[in-house]
Amino acid sequence: MPSAKIFYDSDADLSLLEGKTIVFLGFGNQGAAQAQNLRDTGIPNDKILIANRPDSYADDAKSKGFIVENDIAKAASVADVIFLLIPDQVQPRVFNDVVQSTLKDTATIVVASGYNVFFKLLQFKPTQDVVMVAPRMIGSSVRSLFVKGQGFPCFASAEQNGTGKALEIAVALSRAIGATKAGAIASSAYEETAMDLFAEQALWPNIITLFREGFSVLKEAGCSDEALCYEMWMSKEPAEIFERAAEDGFIAQLKYHSVVSQYGQLSGALALDGVAVREHFKNILHNQVLNGKFCKEFSKIEADLEKDGYDNPLNELYRKTEETELVQAEKRVRARLADLIKSGQQ
């Protein structure tokens, strides 16, 4: 496949945003960061509207000087551009039932995740633009890097070109929030969703399992809870490894390890049966993620995620996971550390 196009400041035309009312549906980590960046880029404050129910997020927006509208439908009615920055699982209900009926026929809808667009869970008018502007990091970093004059990784795409200017608007918005300083990567809702869900349902479950079973094997071999927790993650060594990987290269970061470590990691990785892992991963990608199986299953339990206790399926998953030896051992270690800190202060 050809390399993806990367959009920089020089590719963006901010005049496309002049005079437009830009509404942020939600003022959480991403909403707060992107709205502030947009304003600091030069979008007038009176052209930025925060649509949020009366809560701490609305109070935060007001404290930062933004205009807040608690009536979501009313806010949507004046939007030329609307950022959907509420959780994926509630977007279809809020957008389809509240927002869409009052939204302008030529409005631009901006998503930061491809999930609801790829699985066609949002009801758009054919004359509207649908674009993805998806920072690849948490909101606090989107803001802090902007303040430092640096860019951040971001995906940008046009998913529906109702006005004929969808991609140009996506790039302009990417620049307005500060992404094109480092380069916004041309992507798609398909690509973002495939990678995101694959990481969540294939890569990380396997990593959790490897740590869980590795912990158990070493525990059986006589290693203590304290030594295991610190050796495996509480020392923050894994975080440092990934930081070095981002800076120097996924394999090149090994040069910071001992020769024994380098030899062990490289020879061990090459000796593992990658074919079996690859087939397992392909099965998850094609028969769970891309075919919509997970999406359908998740949609069935979406309402239950607002329940309390173990009637909430997510809480039940946490309960089962917390029964594992790794989690129980970590609780014992952290409790002991807290007792030691407490006794030292007395």
Describe the overall structure.
With about 350 residues, the chain is α/β, with parallel strands linked by helices. It has 2 domains: about 5-185, NAD(P)-binding Rossmann-like Domain (Rossmann fold, 3-Layer(aba) Sandwich), CATH 3.40.50.720; about 195-345, no CATH class. It is about 55% helix and about 10% strand. It contains 15 helices and 9 strands. The protein has a 9-stranded mixed sheet. Helix 1 links the parallel strand 2 (about 20-25) and strand 3 (about 50). Helix 8 (about 190-220) crosses helix 12. The longest helix is centred in the middle third of the chain and has 32 residues, at about 190-220. It is globular and about 65 Å long. Pfam families: KARI_C, KARI_N. Pathway: Amino-acid biosynthesis; L-isoleucine biosynthesis; L-isoleucine from 2-oxobutanoate: step 2/4; Amino-acid biosynthesis; L-valine biosynthesis; L-valine from pyruvate: step 2/4. This is Acetohydroxy-acid reductoisomerase. Keywords: Amino-acid biosynthesis, Branched-chain amino acid biosynthesis, Isomerase, Oxidoreductase. One of its GO terms (biological process) is isoleucine biosynthetic process.
